[in-house]
Amino acid sequence: MIIRVLQTEARHTLLHHCGQYAESRRLARVAAYIQAHLHEEISGETLCQLAGMSQASFYRYFKMVFGISPTAYILQEKVKKAAEILVQPDKNVSDAAYASGFNSLHYFGRVFKKITGLTPTAYKAQHHLNTSRSKR
Predict the structure, then answer these.
(1) Whole-prediction pTM
(2) Distances (CA, A) of 26 to 14, 64, 82, 125
(3) Which of 6, 9, 70, 116 has the largest CB neighbor count within 10 A?
(4) In angstroms, rounded to a whole number, what is the distance separating the alpha carbons of residues 101 and 40?
């Protein structure tokens, strides 16, 4: 449990200070790249090159520091971006899926539900309901 807390804290620190450490920290550079290219296909090979590490070393090091695989991290960040888009009243599920880098609505729905516990439509409806209540 303590290791998970430390990994999460390390991930948040790296992401928060990404700009400062982008030149000197391997994973901060990778995290900054992921954030800037979420809407694109991100290959493991590109991430390994950015980190200047072999694939095995990179994946092992990334998981040790962040507590999750690079692939899982990318999916989490894509879902986080999609959730930000879904709360906008003029955006729909398709807008959120494609803007956050998913090419398939079905896959987007599965991944979104796995990470958030809600379907994208339910998430949007729940947020709309909470927003309506808070305006009263």
Answers:
(1) 0.76
(2) 10, 13, 26, 39
(3) 70
(4) 6
